[in-house]
Amino acid sequence: MLNNKRIGAVVPAYNEEKQIGMVLGTMPDLVDVIIVVDDASRDKTAQIVESQQRQNAKIVLLRHDKNSGVGGAIASGYKWARDHDIDVAVVMAGDGQMDPKDLPAILAPVVSGEVDYAKGNRLFSGAAFRNIPKSRYFGNSVLSLLTKVASGYWHIADSQSGYTAINKTALATIDWDRMYKRYGQPNDLLVFLNINNFKVRDIHINPTYNIGEKSGIKIRKVIFTISWLLLRRFLWRLKEKYIIRDFHPLIFFYFLGGLLLLLGGVFMARLVWLWIKLGHVPEITALALAFCVVTGLQSAFFAMWFDMEYNKNLR
User: Which of 32, 41, 136, 147 is buried most, with the most CB atoms less than 10 Å from its CB?
Assistant: First the structure.
């Protein structure tokens, strides 16, 4: 317990027989309930957790019959926390990549009521570039930029960090059955939080790698899958937040920017075709392309600025 708040740790685990014992054994005392979600593991993960249960009454084991992905496992843990009067739920992965020493810092702003959701950010320090595998660092950076646009939380980075804490109000508000079930869950959740105007804050944590964990992430596949997810969620957020629940003229700027950039793509294709066929480009085509690209980008940037201003109080 922390400041009279009941703390629950959600531990998603899939084939983590080598790491799960260490994760449970190093869980800080301030955690009141440890909710392990075995996502249909094919190894001895569940048996190890059951063995730990006999020694630690804090441990609760939830088992999935079918693998639902890390997002699905987290959603199951969140729903259990919501239904059992947990004040703050924190996610600590079953592979041991989340340092227990960082837990108090993650919990502090949520427990104090300053924000509704806090998440770890491994990119604050220069050490991140040295410690994080380069392909994952690059992929994370790209997805972090896209997540800023899609979610409306422009002050948030390291969007793929799953080391998070969420309060009781947000737990009860979010529809966890609609949450994305795979590796894009942290990105997806930020969109849901923004639509409901929850305050979010980044907390500096140290990146932890090469401790025996085995990543199932394929960067080339995940980056395109999550990018498509973010595009869909971005459009959904604009509709929900700026048309249905409220109205803001940034909608017109985004629409105009998107339309002009789309036309710019058409003029670019025409320019290349004419260059190949005729050996030169009509001035009107070049001018139309320049107008569409410049005005389209300007409209999009204005829309982003309006979005940033509208959400600046959600820090």
Answer: 147
